[in-house]
Specification:
There is one protein chain. This protein has 569 residues and is α/β, with parallel strands linked by helices. The chain is built from 21 helices and 14 strands. An eight-stranded mixed beta sheet has the order 7-8-12-11-10-9-13-14. Strands 2-1-3-4 form a four-stranded parallel beta sheet, sandwiched between helices. It has a two-stranded antiparallel sheet with strand order 5-6. Helix 3 links the parallel strand 1 and strand 2. The protein is globular, with a radius of gyration of 24 Å.
C-alpha cells in the first residue's frame, strides 16, 4: 500500500501535499523535468507570477525582474517556480473598443494567479506587475489565496525629452498633442515629433497616473517592500528590490505572516492617505475597494471622503502638477512622505508589512526630504488643503461618482449637457468643434455592464485639454478616467446608464452643476420630469452575448462597489 502524503504544516503547508509521500512519485517525476532536485522537494515552493510581455513598455522588462525575484527565493532557501499571466496595454487600446478589456483583465489576472497557485500548491507568491490593471489583479489574487506574498512594482519609466523644446514629455503629452493638432496649434511634423520622443523605454507611464498611484498605494498598504513604488524600471535598485522580495516571501513563511494579516482596514486607510497626498488617480478608488472586498475588509466610497477631509495633497506631480515620478525617485521616493504623514498623525504606524515589521518600524531611520526640493510640499503649504478625490452624490449619481478636482480647474462648474452614447462619438464631437465653451460632455453606456468593461476616457479629456478648453468644458461619464486625465471630469457615475441610472436620462441642453465643495452632481430638472423620463426608459440590449465581455457584464458589480465579479455569488 502506498504511503499517504504527509499532512500540511508550517512553511510547506501547500507544497507538501503535492510532493510528499510515495503516492506523489508521479508529481515529483514531472517536477524533476523542470529542474527540481531531491533537495528542492523539501523546500517551500514560491510561485513568481510574471506579467511580462512585449505588448507594452510597462511590462517589457519584467521577464528579467522575475528571474531576479526567483534568485532571491532560491538564495533564501525556497524553491522558485516562474509562471506567466496576461496583461493588456491600456495606452495602446485607449480610445478603441479594445479598451473594454482593460478592467476585465484585472479579474482575469487575479483568477489566473489564483488558479495556478491553487493548482500547483505554491506556499508563497511573488507577483511583479507594471501596468494599471495587472497590479491590483496581482494583489487581489494574494488576498484570495492568503499565502505569504510580496508584490513588486516593475518601476516607472524615464521621461522623454522633446528634441526642440527640451521639455519632458510622456504618454499624456501625446494624447494632448492630438487635441493641439485638431485645434491647429500643432502641425503633422510636430505631432510626429511628440509621438517619437515621449516613450523612451521600459517602465510604466511616468506621472502620478494609475500605475504609479497603485504602486504607491500597495507599498502604503504594506504589500510591497519599502521603496518599491518609486524606483525606476531600469537600474540596480529595481533588481535588488526583486531579489529582496523573493527572500522576503521565504521569511514571511517562516514567520507565518499572510496577506490578510497585513491588509487590514487600517492598512487600507494608510493606502488612501498616501494616494491623496500624492494627488493620485481616480482608479485608486475603484481598485482599493475591489482589493478590500477580496481581503474581506469593509471599504466604501465614503471612506475616501472621510479621510480626504483631513489629508492634503502634497505632491506636485503630473498630470496636474509639473514633476514625473522619476523626480520623486531622485528625492527619496514615498518613504519620506510616509514618515511626514506618520509624524503628523495621519498614518497608522502599527500596521504590519511584508518586511515582518510595522509601518513605524520601517520608517524609523528614513531621512526627511531635503529642504531644497519642491516636489513634495510641507503640510504647512500643501498643493491643496484637502483631497482632490471627490465622491459626489446627487440626482445624477444617487449611489456615487468619483471626480479628480485639483482646484486649478475651479471647484464649481455649471453648463449645458451635450450627450454622446460612446467615447468615440464624444472624441469626434470634441475634435470637430461641436463641443464648445460651457458644455458638460456626457459620455454614457460606458459603465462596467453597459460598455461592457468601463473604458477610460483619456482620449476625450486629453483632446479637451489640447484644444485649450480645460477651464471651459466639463466631462461626466459612467465610464472611468485614465490617471493621466485632468480637468473638470467626473467618472464612475452610478447607477450607470445601462441600469437605468439618471445619466441615461439626460438630454442635450439639460443644465448640470458639478460642485466639488458640496460634493454634489445634479441636473436642474424637476423630480417629476426625471420620473417621467425614467418611466419611459428602455434598457439597451447587451452589446455582447458571448465570451469574456458577456461573462463580465453578467457578473460585475457597480463601480461604486469596485466593479468586482464575485460580489453576488
Amino acid at each position: 500500500m502506498a504511503k499517504k502524503s504527509s499532512k500540511p504544516s508550517g512553511a510547506r503547508a501547500h507544497s507538501s501535499i503535492v510532493v510528499d509521500g510515495t503516492d506523489r512519485t508521479p508529481n515529483r517525476s514531472m517536477l524533476r523535468a523542470v529542474g527540481f532536485t531531491d533537495a528542492d522537494f523539501a523546500k517551500p515552493q514560491v510561485g513568481v507570477a510574471s506579467t511580462w510581455s512585449t505588448l507594452t513598455p510597462c511590462n517589457m522588462h519584467i521577464d528579467k525582474l522575475a528571474l531576479e525575484a526567483a534568485s532571491g527565493v532560491d538564495a533564501a532557501g525556497g524553491k522558485s517556480i516562474v509562471f506567466g499571466t496576461i496583461t493588456v496595454a491600456d495606452g495602446i487600446s485607449m480610445g478603441t473598443m479594445g479598451m473594454r478589456y482593460s478592467l476585465v483583465s484585472r479579474e482575469v489576472i487575479a483568477d489566473s494567479i489564483e488558479t495556478v497557485a491553487g493548482a500547483e500548491g505554491f506556499d508563497g507568491i511573488v507577483a511583479i506587475g507594471g501596468c494599471d490593471k495587472n497590479m491590483p489583479g496581482c494583489v487581489m489574487a494574494m488576498a484570495r489565496l492568503n499565502r505569504a506574498s510580496v508584490f513588486v512594482y516593475g518601476g516607472t519609466i524615464l521621461p522623454g525629452i522633446h528634441p526642440e523644446s527640451k521639455k519632458e514629455c510622456d504618454i499624456v503629452s501625446v494624447f494632448e498633442a492630438v487635441g493641439q493638432h485638431a485645434a491647429g496649434k500643432l502641425d503633422e511634423k510636430g505631432l510626429k515629433t511628440v509621438e517619437e520622443c515621449s516613450i523612451p523605454g521600459p517602465g510604466s507611464c511616468g506621472g502620478m497616473y494609475t500605475a504609479n498611484t497603485m504602486a504607491s498605494a500597495i507599498e502604503a498598504l504594506g504589500m510591497s517592500l519599502p521603496d518599491s513604488a518609486s524606483q525606476l524600471a531600469i537600474g540596480k535598485e529595481k533588481l535588488d528590490d526583486c531579489r529582496r522580495a523573493g527572500a522576503a516571501v521565504v521569511k514571511l513563511l517562516e514567520l507565518g505572516i499572510r496577506p490578510r494579516d497585513i491588509m487590514t482596514r487600517k492598512a487600507f486607510e494608510n493606502a488612501i492617505t498616501v494616494v491623496i497626498a500624492l494627488g493620485g488617480s481616480t482608479n485608486a478608488v475603484l481598485h482599493l475597494i475591489a482589493i478590500a472586498h477580496t481581503a474581506g475588509v469593509k471599504l466604501g466610497l465614503d471612506d475616501f471622503t472621510r479621510i480626504g477631509k483631513r489629508v492634503p495633497v502634497l505632491g506636485d506631480l503630473k498630470p496636474s502638477g509639473k514633476y514625473s515620478v522619476a523626480h520623486l525617485a531622485r528625492i527619496g521616493g514615498i518613504a519620506p512622505l510616509m514618515k511626514m504623514l506618520l509624524e503628523a498623525g495621519l498614518l497608522h504606524g502599527d500596521c504590519l508589512t511584508v518586511t515582518g515589521r510595522t509601518v513605524a518600524e520601517n520608517l524609523r531611520d528614513v531621512a526627511h526630504y531635503s529642504a531644497d526640493q519642491d516636489l513634495i510640499r510641507p503640510l504647512s503649504n500643501p498643493v491643496k488643503k484637502d483631497s482632490h478625490l471627490r465622491i459626489l452624490y446627487g440626482n445624477l449619481a444617487p449611489t456615487g461618482a468619483v471626480a479628480k478636482i485639483s482646484g486649478k480647474e475651479g471647484l464649481v462648474f455649471t453648463g449645458k449637457a451635450i450627450v454622446f452614447e460612446s467615447e468615440e462619438a464624444a472624441l469626434q464631437g470634441i475634435l470637430s468643434g461641436r463641443v464648445k465653451k460651457g458644455h458638460v460632455v456626457v459620455v454614457r453606456n460606458e459603465g462596467p455592464r453597459g460598455g461592457p468593461g468601463m473604458r477610460e476616457m483619456l482620449a476625450p479629456t486629453a483632446a479637451v485639454m489640447g484644444k485649450g478648453l480645460g477651464q471651459d468644458v466639463a466631462l461626466i461619464t459612467d465610464g472611468r478616467f485614465s490617471g493621466g486625465s485632468h480637468g473638470f471630469v467626473v467618472g464612475h457615475v452610478t447607477p450607470e446608464a445601462f441600469d437605468g441610472g439618471p445619466i441615461g436620462l439626460l438630454k442635450n441642453g439639460d443644465p448640470i452643476t458639478i460642485d466639488a465643495e458640496k460634493n454634489e452632481i445634479s441636473v436642474d430638472l424637476p423630480a417629476k420630469e426625471l420620473k417621467a423620463r425614467a418611466k419611459a426608459f428602455k434598457p439597451r440590449k447587451p452589446r455582447e452575448t458571448r465570451g469574456v465581455l458577456a461573462k463580465y457584464a453578467k457578473l460585475v458589480s457597480s463601480a461604486s462597489e469596485g466593479a468586482v465579479t464575485d460580489k453576488n455569488l
